[in-house]
Design goal:
The chain has 261 residues and is mostly helical. It is 69% helix and 0% strand. The protein has one domain. The longest helix is centred in the N-terminal third of the chain and has 74 residues.
């Protein structure tokens, strides 16, 4: 007896069955991809928000540091003006104590602004700037960072003026008198087990101090350097005001765009 095999046996799948299996597999893979994408997107958004929180802290710290530095420069410019007048009019010979009272080593030292750039370094060095999706914020952060870096060019000039003016300072001030004036503070620190806070201000000097007379050439050079330091300090103070303005504007933008409390 002849056996016939039918085309539609129970073990054979139709193209429709294959299509639905493919479709279900595709949908499963696609949904998994979407879930993973959403998870990565959420992680990046969370990291972006965290970066902006620490950036706001850094900018707030910078603003506080700049406020203190601006005030310090203003105070030193005023004192340098007084010292300039005392020497220019030869009053320093009769007001030696006033000259020493004005002196707090050194008035012309290197007053640097050290930005709190922990977050900016992480953004730049770790390739994380891409996480900042708000273009206005990323542009503001980059512009602020460039502004801060550009003013580093003044530091070599400050070092040069400091070295030059200290050479002439030795002809005006007696190191023995300066040493005696700060000895009380040093004795307190040596006898203490913790770091004493405060600076060497309001030190005690003898009421009568005999000042060495500067030669006309030394006097002229000394006044020239004092004037240069005052001019440089005034420009640096104006620069710090600009940096502070940028820091404040950038801070306000970050707080507003990311709703940081």
């Amino acid at each position: 007896m002849e056996v016939h095999h039918h085309a539609h046996s129970h073990g054979k799948k139709t193209w429709k069955a294959y299509f639905w299996e493919f479709l279900m597999l595709f949908l499963a893979v696609f949904c998994g991809f979407l879930a993973e994408y959403q998870l990565e997107h959420k992680i990046e958004k969370d990291r972006e928000k965290q970066f902006m929180k620490t950036m706001a802290e850094d900018l707030n710290t910078d603003t506080s540091r700049l406020n203190r530095l601006i005030k310090l420069r203003k105070d030193r410019i005023r004192d340098l003006d007084t010292l300039f007048e005392l020497i220019a009019t030869d009053e320093y010979l009769a007001k030696g104590k006033k000259v020493y009272d004005l002196y707090e080593f050194p008035y012309w030292d290197i007053l640097r602004f050290f930005p709190s750039d922990r977050t900016m370094q992480q953004l730049k060095n770790g390739g994380n700037l891409r996480l900042i999706h708000k273009k206005n914020v990323s542009n503001a952060l980059i512009n602020y960072d460039v502004t801060v870096r550009n003013y580093k060019e003044y530091e070599p000039l400050q070092v040069e003026l400091s070295n030059q003016i200290n050479q002439h300072l030795e002809k005006l001030l007696d190191p023995v008198i300066l040493e005696k004036s700060k000895r009380a503070f040093e004795d307190q620190q040596l006898s203490a087990d913790t770091i004493l806070t405060g600076r060497l201000t309001n030190r005690e000097f003898p009421n009568l101090i005999t000042m060495s007379t500067l030669t006309p050439a030394d006097k002229k050079i000394f006044l020239k350097y004092l004037d240069q330091v005052k001019t440089l300090y005034l420009q640096l103070m104006r620069d710090h005001m600009l940096v502070k303005k940028r820091a404040t504007e950038t801070l306000q933008l970050v707080i507003s765009e990311y709703n940081i409390k």
